[in-house]
Amino acid sequence: MPSPIAVIDFETTGMTPAHGARATEVGIVLVQQGRVVDRFASLMYTGVPIPRFIAEMTGITNAMLREAPPAAQVMREAARFVGDAPMVAHNAAFDSKFWQAELALLGLAASQPYACTVLLSRRIYPDAPSHKLGRLTDHLGLPRPGRAHRALADAEMAAALLAAMQQRLQDSYGLPWPDHAQLMQLQRCTPKTLARMLQPTLAVQSE
DNA sequence: TGCCAGGCCCTCTTTAGGGCCTT
Known about the structure:
The chain has helices spanning 52-58, 62-66, 71-82, 92-104, 117-124, 133-139, 151-173, 180-188, 191-206; strands spanning 5-12, 23-32, 35-43, 87-89, 114-116.
């Protein structure tokens, strides 16, 4: 049985911690061979207000955050929950920065490798009309577990997308169930290189 | 004052530009 992978999603007050944005909610699911085996989710309070358009998009209000536990407490629990598991996020460049920034404020290391479901889906579903998480979920007929733009629902959608891609690699391309290290290798290939690697296998199998 | 990300990826490219993706 492969080691667990932690699929994470943050809701935040903005696009980057480099400009003062902070996390407002974190959702994490632990997956093992495509199955969710554990979940963690919490709002968190940092004192940084949410811009109105983000509150309207997420449904997370400043009043909700004032009643939430402190970010330091939530992030310590999140770090314990993840442990040494390698991580996955939809547009990992975004979530990994908040993961590192929030843990750095606590003096905690954030050395887990991040695989990215956007990079992977661009390679595995090059003809998808969109690689936005919600639209890709609908395109593939995957379940929507809750309101989009809430951390746990988005983490669950990303986990389902990850499992669908692992399954496709296994079934269509004759590969073993890809572990996190193999996903990292696949996302580093250029899309055209990966297409050349995968298509002949698919063609042979479909004959 | 006014503006404010940044990495990926395609193409009418590579001495660049613009769309995508995340909040």
